[in-house]
Structures are given as structure tokens and as C-alpha cells.
Amino acid sequence: MRKLFVYLKDYKKESIIAPLFKMLEALFDLLVPLVVASIINKGIKYGDKPYIYQMCAVLILLAVVGLLCALCAQYFAAKAAVGFAAKLRCALFSHIQSLSFTELDTQGTSALMNRMTSDVNQLQNGVNMALRLLLRSPFIVFGAMIMAFAVNAQAAVVFVIVIPVLFVIVFGIICVTLPLYRKVQERLDQVLRRTRENLTGVRVIRAFHREDEEIASFCGDNKQLKRQQLFVGKISALMNPLTYVVVNLGIIALLANGGVKVSVGAMEQGDVVALIDYMSQILVELVKLANTVVLLTRAIASGRRVAGVFEVRSSMEFPEITGAAEESSEIIRFSHVDLTYAGAGDKSLEDISFSVKRGQTVGIIGGTGSGKTSLVHLIPRFYDATAGEIRIAGRDVKAYDKETLRDLVGVVMQKAVLFQGTIRENLLWGKPGATDDELWQALNVAQAKEIVEGKAKGLAEVVEQGGHNLSGGQRQRLAIARTLVKQPDILILDDSASALDYATESELRKAIAGLDPKPTVLIVSQRAASILSADFIIVLDEGRIVGTGTHKELLESCPVYQEIYDSQFDDRKQKEGEHA
């Protein structure tokens, strides 16, 4: 938690000035009852109107100066809190971006989203309230008691009794409710998680006609949250009546004691009014302090969660700039590679060995869960192999700096993700300085040229968040074009043409094969038709290579490949003729 305060270092001045102005405001508030007492004791008692007007002017002056102090305090506190949150959010986002896929999988998207939004907002509010009230409220409470003794020491004994009782009530309720508030927060997290899952998967829910079940489940969680909130709310609601009872009893004691003293001339009437004002100030400030403590407790809990993300370190380390890849006829080599995901008991890949020459097209096929995506994710170092060695262009993959490696390898993921903006902005992710001619060339190869030409604004056409204004096939082709813009030496198509028809996919493969220079292409697919013309095919089954070779060789020698092929083509001879 303390590590987070480093993001306040640029706001030291504001963090000091804000509480000082709040203390100054509190000081003026403490002077008001004395001025009111003076008006009563000297002005009203003796009918001295000029004195009353003078003191009223002093009250107005105190109010104006206090307001200015409050505004200054609010401004500097808000500046420090908002600046702190902005820097923290940027640092957190940067840190998350530095994590490998392993850490991202472990932490989870929902948790990281909550840290970036809800938890940082809680910290921002906590810093703001701490700068404004953490010193002001105790200052008012003890300052009011001191001022009460200055007014009348004997009558102020009531404050010595009332203030400890109020502290016991306020902080006793806080001690009881804080654990309950934590449970409420946990339940709220569950509701938010379920909400996110339902909104993300709304199409699946409707496809399976599960609306009623999901509504019932959500309402059940929501009712649990409601019950917990009502329970803790009822306990918290005891604070106001109990504190008001104690304060009113204190006021009654002041009036009773003060009335006797006033009647015998031992005390002025204005002094009684001042003491009552101080008692009221104490009540208000204690309630503020209690709310501040609750808010700070939530902020501290959020701070611990955010600090926990910062403590997560990437399991990957990249060297400094290593320069461009070397020229080598062998572009990829796997030597006895194993992969075990974090928290998984079994190996996802085991004893993987193969090599790929520059410019070759390699097909990777296997059943669901056979390890196809896991294998290709090792090439750009999205994950690190737990055993064995991977070499790219003759050099260990771990010897490349991140920028060089990611420029060398272009990956089109299974799920085509586009970002909000224009088509041009999305394509420029591949190569920020690319010309329009380069973009159109990539679109032409990716069979996406007609998509853009059909848009009224062409490359300037707006893409909605996630590309929801485009079909699945259009998103996939634009994602392929985005990767082709960077002209990688190694192009990985990870089942990225699943939404394309056979004719379009065939044209895509032909266009990629005709590129000059031709990249080394790895095609991951569950469709045998997508890899029939590959230079050689790797067949995976339960994380192991069970066959390598050309299509014809595998049909003769690999039962797993034969099974996949036969399940997709009823008439093998007819399909062989079409392929030929």
C-alpha cells in the first residue's frame, strides 16, 4: 500500500496546502461561536446596535474567508487526488501490458478491469477525503473542547464526558460494520462479474434460450446483496440517533447547568449559546470522521488489491536491443519442447521437435485441445517453453528483444479483434508508417479489398468497438490484412480463416503464396482442406506430434490424420481429384 504513495510525489505541494487550508477553515469555524457569544453578551444585552453590526460584519468576514479557504482546500485536494489516480492508472495499465500471457491468464480479465476502474476510483476518493477531513475533523473536535474550556471551565466538563461516549459509539459501530462492508463488497463483485459475463455472452444466452434462468440467478445474487446492504445499513443507521441522543443529553446538561449559572450571574447567556454551538460542531465532525474512516478503509482494501497487481512480475525477461534476425535457411526449429501452463498438472505440449525452412508453408492440424494454438504461441514468446529449445533464424527465441521478435513474427489470432476507430487506424497497427498503397496491397492479399471499397468512406470508414458493425468473415480478413501490413518473416494464421468460405480461403492462400518475398507461413486449422497444399503438415494429438509429412504421405502413414480427413470428406477419391 505504501508503494502507491509514490504516485503522489508530484503533488506534494497540493497534499500539504489542502489540509492547511482545511485547518484554517476549521479555525474560523471555531471562532464563530465566540463572536456570536460576544454579540449576545455585549450587543444584545446592552442594546449596542453599532457593536452588533460590527460583529455581524465580522461573522460575514469569517464566513467569506472560511468559504475561500474551503474552496482552496477542495481545489488542491481534488487536484492531488485526480492527479494521483491518473498516474496510478497509467502505471497500472503499463504494468499490465508488461505481463506475459501466463500472468494475464492467472489474474483474469475481470479482476484486472476492476483494479483499473473501481479500485482506483476508491483510492482517488480516499485520497481526496483524507486530505480534506482526516485532520480537520479531529482538530474541530478537540479544538471545540479547548474553546469550551476557554469559555467556561466548569460547564465544559460536560464535553469531557460526552466526547468519549461519542467516540465509543461512532468507532464501535465502525468496528462492527467494516467486516460487513467487506462482505457487501465481495457480494457486489459477484454481481458485477455475473453482469459482465451475461452482457459479454448475451448472444449465447439467447441462442440457448437461457434468459429466464440467468435472470433468476442474477436476481438471486442481487437479493443477497440487498439483504446484506440492508443489514449493515440498519446497524450504520444507529449512529445518527445514538449520537444525537448523547449530544442532546449534553446540550440539556449545558442548559441546566448554564441556566443556574446565568441566574446567579456566574455565566453569560452568550457563553451558553457558544457551548451549545461547540457541542453541535463536535457532533457533525464526528459523523464526518466516521464516514471518512469507512471510506478510507475501503480505499485501503482497494489499495492492497492494486498493490497486489504491481507485485505480480512477468515470468518472461527480454534482453536489450539485439538487432535484426540473421539470414538463415532454417527459420524455425523446435528441439524436444514441453509446455505446462501455470497451475496445470499435465503437459499441454510434450517432446515437440521439428524444423521449418524459410519460405515454407506448414500446416498444423489436430483435434480440439491437441495443443495447436499452444505450439504457435511459443514462437512469438507469448509463453515460454518449460523444457527444450526454440530457435528462430538460428538464434534462441529468448535471445531476441521483444520488438525485434514481434516484428519478425506476425500472428493472426483465432478471435479477430478490431479496435474502435477507422479501418486505416486498425491497419496501421501492423506498421504505423505504412502508406495507403501498402494498406491496399495488404487488403488485396487478405481478400478484403472489396470490403473497404464497398464502404462509403473507404479506409476512413469507422469501425465500432470490437468490429461489431462488420461480419465475422470481414473481421477476420481485416485482421489478416493488419498483420500482412507489417510484412513479417513468419506469418502465423491461427485458425483465422474459420469464418471464410472455401473459395475465399483458397484465394487467400494463393495470394499469400504469391507474395515477394514470401513469408514462412504456419496455418493452424481444424479443416484439412485448409492445409492440403502445405509443404508439410504437423499432426498433433494430446500435445504430441503423431505425424509429419505431406498430405499424401500422412494419408498413408498417420491414422489420426486419416480419421480427421475422412470425417470431413465423405468421398476421399473425389476430393483427391478436386485437389489435384
Give a short overview.
The chain is α/β, with parallel strands linked by helices and 580 residues long. Helix 9 (239-263) packs antiparallel against helix 10 (269-311).
Q: In words, what does this structure look like?
A:
It is a single chain. The chain has 580 residues and is an alpha/beta fold. The protein has 2 domains: 85-311, ABC transporter transmembrane region fold (Up-down Bundle); 330-579, Rossmann fold. Helices cover 62% and strands 11% of the residues. It has a 6-stranded mixed beta sheet. Strands 2-1-4-5 form a 4-stranded antiparallel beta sheet, with no helix packed on it. Strands 7-8 form a two-stranded antiparallel ribbon. Helix 5 packs antiparallel against helix 6 and helix 6 packs parallel to helix 10 (269-311). The longest helix has 50 residues, at 49-98. The two termini are 67 Å apart. Mean pLDDT is 87; it is low at 572-580.
